[in-house]
């Protein structure tokens, strides 16, 4: 019996609807995000623990500093937005805390390795210990286990290990420390796996040699064709190579895990190499002026020879990649976040919302 055109049209429509529903159901629906890192993803920990990150930080979007080293949102903020989750509350900030959908253990100045040379005492091992304490207390109070095993665990750390080491080591000496840094990273990941973590999103380290504050600090160091510190970027590339190899190994060692390796380096370096095409001015200029060269951070005020000096932000912040010489503007963070969220710089190449699904071989 022949199928009428109307019947055929209905069948096609239903097939299309089924496909759309299947795509929606394939989202991971992460109930929570637990983040670990440094100031690139610190949403207020360093403000709570050591001292306020003052305005104009954060003011452009939040209307206040909100503890972030940027004019507005960070990459982690765009990730939680995409997952329709609230912005992450810092573990170290108890005032107005909301941990129903995760927590942020990232702290400004942190390193992977525990070292006195680091800017912060909250190295990755300490952050993981804080998480374990947080989980233990949560389970004893609320007896909720599913959120921890179904949550997304994100990492953005390593920049400080390389930047600090570069100040007193040669390129080859610094490269020789990478295996130990990766080992410390691995210990942290395995501890979290033991605690029930299964879904990991690991951001590699960015092109540290392109940070304006380091370019000013090392004017005699050789540059690459785009003006970045070549030796330091070489170290970052080697770090990322070893990190990716280790993640490949962990996928085999931890059979119930799902690791996503995110090439943040390529996304951030792309901002530098294509700055003009993306609407940015000098990629090595920064918006919060007065922050570098006078020993003062963005938003700080100092007195020099009886004269009050203060840093202030530019009006056209959307035209800058760097916010303060170290951290990125909200515009730059958004561009990098978009590439993370759509999976274009990830391995496996899955959007963040589907970063729990095995790809077909």
Helix content: 40-55%
Strand content: 5-15%
Query: What's the helix count?
Result: 13
Biggest sheet strand line-up:
2-1-3-4-5-8
List the helices and strands in order.
HEHHHEHHEHHHEHHEHEEHE
Shape label: globular
What ranges have pLDDT less than 50 throughout 5 or more consecutive residues? 17-24, 291-295
Rg calc = 22 Å
Average pLDDT score = 89
Distance between the termini: 40 Å
Largest sheet: 6 strands, mixed
| Classification by helices and strands | alpha/beta
Annotation, overall tally of beta strands: 8
InterPro entries: GDSL, SGNH_plant_lipase-like
Keywords: Glycoprotein, Hydrolase, Signal
GO molecular function, one term: hydrolase activity, acting on ester bonds
Pfam family, one: Lipase_GDSL
């Amino acid at each position: 019996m022949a199928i009428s055109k109307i019947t055929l049209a209905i069948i096609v429509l239903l097939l299309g609807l089924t496909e759309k529903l299947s795509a929606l159901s394939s989202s991971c629906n992460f109930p929570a995000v637990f983040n670990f890192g440094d100031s690139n993803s610190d949403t207020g920990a360093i403000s709570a623990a050591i001292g306020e990150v003052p305005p104009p930080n954060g003011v452009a979007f939040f209307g206040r500093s909100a503890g972030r080293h940027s004019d507005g949102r960070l990459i982690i903020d765009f990730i939680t937005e995409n997952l329709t989750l609230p912005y992450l509350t810092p573990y170290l900030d108890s005032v107005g805390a909301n941990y129903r959908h995760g927590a942020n253990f990232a702290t400004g100045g942190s390193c992977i390795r525990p070292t006195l040379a680091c800017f912060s005492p909250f190295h990755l091992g300490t952050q993981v210990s804080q998480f374990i304490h947080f989980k233990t207390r949560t389970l004893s109070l609320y007896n909720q286990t599913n959120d921890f095993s179904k949550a997304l665990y994100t990492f953005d750390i390593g920049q400080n290990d390389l930047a600090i080491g570069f100040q007193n080591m040669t390129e080859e000496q610094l490269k020789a420390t990478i295996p130990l840094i990766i080992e410390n990273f691995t210990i942290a990941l395995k501890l979290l796996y033991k605690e029930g973590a299964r879904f990991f999103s690991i951001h590699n380290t960015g092109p540290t040699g392109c940070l304006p504050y380091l370019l000013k600090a090392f004017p005699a160091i050789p540059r690459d064709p785009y003006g970045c510190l070549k030796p330091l970027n070489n170290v970052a590339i080697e770090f990322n190579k070893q990190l990716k190899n280790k993640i490949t190994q962990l996928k085999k060692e931890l059979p119930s895990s799902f690791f996503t390796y995110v090439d943040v380096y390529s996304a951030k370096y792309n901002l530098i190499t294509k700055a003009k095409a993306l609407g940015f001015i000098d990629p090595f200029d920064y918006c919060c002026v007065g922050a570098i060269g006078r020993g003062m951070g963005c938003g700080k005020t100092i007195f020099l020879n009886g004269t009050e000096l203060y840093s202030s932000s530019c009006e056209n912040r959307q035209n800058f990649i760097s916010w303060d010489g170290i951290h990125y503007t909200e515009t730059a963070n958004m561009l990098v976040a978009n590439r993370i969220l759509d999976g274009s710089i990830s391995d496996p190449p899955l959007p963040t919302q589907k970063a729990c699904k095995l790809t077909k071989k």
